[in-house]
Amino acid sequence: MLLKFQKQFPRQTALELALRTGASPRHCERALGGYSQLGERFLQALLRSDFGKEALLSIMDGSQARWFGRFKRQIEVSELRRAVALAQRGLEALEREAAE
Fold first, then answer.
1. Cβ atoms 36, 27 nearer than 8 A
2. Taking the domains of the chain in order of start, what are their residue ranges?
3. Of 32, 27, 36, which is closest to residue 13 (Cα–Cα)?
4. Of 4, 17, 66, 84, which residue is 20 to 30 A from 58 by alpha carbon distance?
5. Which of 40, 1, 41, 46 is nearest to 20 (CA)?
6. How far is Cα 81 from Cα 55, in angstroms, rounded to an integer?
7. What is the pTM of this model?
8. Both ends of the chain: CA-CA distance in Å?
9. Quick one: which of 51, 59, 2, 23 has its CA closest to 13?
């Protein structure tokens, strides 16, 4: 999970992690370096952050739990609905421009 975080935030990674978890930047540096364990509060804060979806998907990677399979499909449905809505707004804007 922390590798994905490092990829998403390659600069000032410890500070980015600290801002999302409330942990000290030093603790985050140690966790990123593999010298410190992630505590329950740390993980909870990360799951509740803007990185939460990616964190959960990383933690559950390879899981065969039925609930998680349904959850991932629901995420895909939501993302596709957002993409369709965005495309619809773009289409409507183009149609308005063409009508002028």
1. yes
2. 1-61, 62-100
3. 32
4. 84
5. 46
6. 22
7. 0.75
8. 50
9. 2
Non-local (6+) Cβ contacts of 65 within 8 A are none
Query: Look-up: residue for tokens 């994905």?
Result: 4
Total length of the chain? 100
- How much is the pLDDT for 54? 93
- Kindly write down the DSSP assignment for every residue of the chain, as one continuous string: -HHHHHHH--SSHHHHHHHHH---HHHHHHHHTTSSPPPHHHHHHHHTSTTHHHHHHHHTTT---HHHHHHHHHHHHHHHHHHHHHHHHHHHHHHHHHH-
Q: Report which residue type is found at 13.
A: T
pLDDT in tens, the chain (100 residues): 888 999 999 999 999 999 999 999 999 999 999 998 888 999 999 999 999 999 999 999 999 999 999 999 999 999 999 999 999 999 999 999 999 8
